[in-house]
Structures are given as structure tokens and as C-alpha cells.
Amino acid sequence: MSKPSALGLILVISGPSGVGKDTVWQTASACLPSFGRAITCTTRERRPHEVEGVDYYFVSSDEFERMIRDDELIEYAQPHGNHFYGVPQKSVLDRINNGLDVVCVIDVQGALRIRGLFPAAILVFITPPQGRENEVLEKRIQGRSAVEASELETRLKTASWELSQVQLYDYQIENDDLQRAANELCEVIEREKARRTVV
Ligand code: ADP
Ligand code: 5GP
């Protein structure tokens, strides 16, 4: 008889801004019902379509500093050098300690920190269509919500560094056709789950 491991899995999804991390995750989540998303904290402003406590916990800089001081965050970073983002310990530990799986949609620095703390974490990098990287990222960032020219420039600059880190991940998935990318994510996780099932 086989039994699943007691601790839940940690899935980390990274990739440049606008590549479609959230959209791929949302599309794939229908076939990955054991996973819940870790809601992370940020000091950046809420976008019009975003919902507090669903997309992020939007906090002030003072509150973020307090969370760092009180050791409430597993990791935190400034992916684009301005706003802070961090993963609350509770959002990950409450799930995995109860045998539930969790997904963290975070930047490269955060992914590596999670890998250091939880070596069994599965790291997936979402890439833009090959050969059209900048063009596609720019279009998707602008298509999502209004963005200032300076912010767009910062995000595209960060993207080229992030894309150079793809080899640090267990899997890379190209997000050209959304449904194909989501299916590939589901297949990767099913394979990993089967591999980790203890006999
Ligand atoms: P990220 O989480 O990586 O910053 P989002 O998931 O917010 O990116 O997606 C950015 C924009 O790109 C959204 O408007 C989304 O609808 C769009 N998008 C995502 N995937 C695709 C795709 N495969 N084809 C076309 N548009 C996409
Ligand atoms: P955005 O402002 O586009 O929502 O996110 C900017 C970047 O921050 C994205 O790469 C996103 O995945 C990342 N991010 C979101 N939450 C966290 C977090 O808690 N920690 C880290 N390290 N990155 C995060």
C-alpha cells in the first residue's frame, strides 16, 4: 500500500513581471485542487482589479518593517528595487504542516530562499514566448492595467536578469498558449506527486 508524505508540497512559481504567472496558476488550479495559494504581503499600491487578502495583503512600510522585526516572514525581497514583498510564515506553514499543498508566486530571490529552507520545494519558472520576450512582456504588462513608463522600464530591466536565472529552476514552462502552459504545469505536478509517493 502506498501513502502520501505527511508534509504538504511547496510549489514555487516565478518569472518576469507580466509573463502570466498568476493567470497560468489560476488556470491550472482547477486540476490541482490540493494546492492553496500563499497570500503574500506587499507595500506596493493595489491595482484596480486586485482584492485585499486575495491577491495580496497590502500593507504600509511601517507594518512591513514590523513583520520583519517580529520574524513573521519566511523571506522578503524588493524584486524591482522599490516596493517590498514577503511571504508570511503562517501562509505556508499552516498548510504544509497539515499535509496540504501550497503555491508561492514569488520572485527569483524568494524562490532561492524557499529552496534553501525547504529543499523539497518544486521550482517552476514561467517564460515568455521565445524570440519575442520583450515585445510580449511589454504588451502583457500594459494590457493588465495602467503602468507608468518608468515602472514599465524597471520591470523590463528586471526581466532580463530574471530570465538569466532560469537554469536554477526544476522546470521551465513557456507561456505562449495559456491552456497549454497550464496543462504542462498540471502534468509537472502530477509527475512530482507520483514520484514522491512513499511505498
Ligand atoms: P504576472 O503574474 O506574471 O505578473 P499576469 O498573470 O498578471 O502576469 O498576466 C499579465 C497579463 O497577461 C494579464 O492581462 C493576462 O491576462 C495576460 N496573459 C497571461 N497569459 C497570457 C497568454 N498566454 N496569452 C495572452 N495573454 C496572457
Ligand atoms: P507584482 O507587483 O507584479 O504583483 O509583483 C512583482 C514581483 O514580486 C513578482 O515577481 C511577484 O511574483 C513577486 N512577489 C510577490 N510576492 C512576493 C513575496 O512574498 N516574496 C518575493 N520574494 N516576491 C514576491
The secondary structure category is alpha/beta
Radius of gyration: 17 Å
Helix content: 40-55%
| Sheet with most strands | 5 strands, parallel
- The CATH class is Alpha Beta
N-end to C-end Cα span: 7 Å
Summed up, the helix count is 7
Number of domains: 1
Element string (H = helix, E = strand): EHEEEHEEHEHEHHEH
Instruction: Write down the overall geometry.
Output: globular
CATH architecture: 3-Layer(aba) Sandwich
The fraction of residues in strands falls at 15-25%
Number of strands: 9
Q: Give a list of the ligands.
A: adenosine-5'-diphosphate, guanosine-5'-monophosphate
Q: Provide the low-confidence segments as ranges.
A: none
Let me know the CATH homologous superfamily.
Answer: P-loop containing nucleotide triphosphate hydrolases
Side by side, the strands of the main sheet go 2-7-1-8-9
Can you tag this structure with a few keywords?
18% strand; binds adenosine-5'-diphosphate; alpha/beta; binds guanosine-5'-monophosphate; Rossmann fold; 5-stranded parallel β-sheet
Could you characterize the architecture of this molecule?
Helix 1 packs across helix 7. The chain has helices at residues 21-28, 61-69, 89-96, 108-117, 133-144, 149-163, 178-196, and strands at 10-14, 35-37, 41-42, 57-58, 73-77, 85-88, 101-105, 122-127, 171-174. The radius of gyration is 17 Å and the shape is globular. With 199 residues, it is α/β, with parallel strands linked by helices. The chain is 41% helix and 18% strand. A hairpin with a 7-residue loop joins strand 5 and strand 6. The strands form two sheets. A five-stranded parallel sheet has the order 2-7-1-8-9, with helices on both faces. Strands 4-3-6-5 form a four-stranded mixed sheet, with helices on both faces. It has one domain (10-196): P-loop containing nucleotide triphosphate hydrolases (Rossmann fold, 3-Layer(aba) Sandwich), CATH 3.40.50.300. It has seven helices and nine strands. Adenosine-5'-diphosphate binds next to helix 1 and helix 5. Guanosine-5'-monophosphate binds next to strand 5, strand 6 and helix 4.
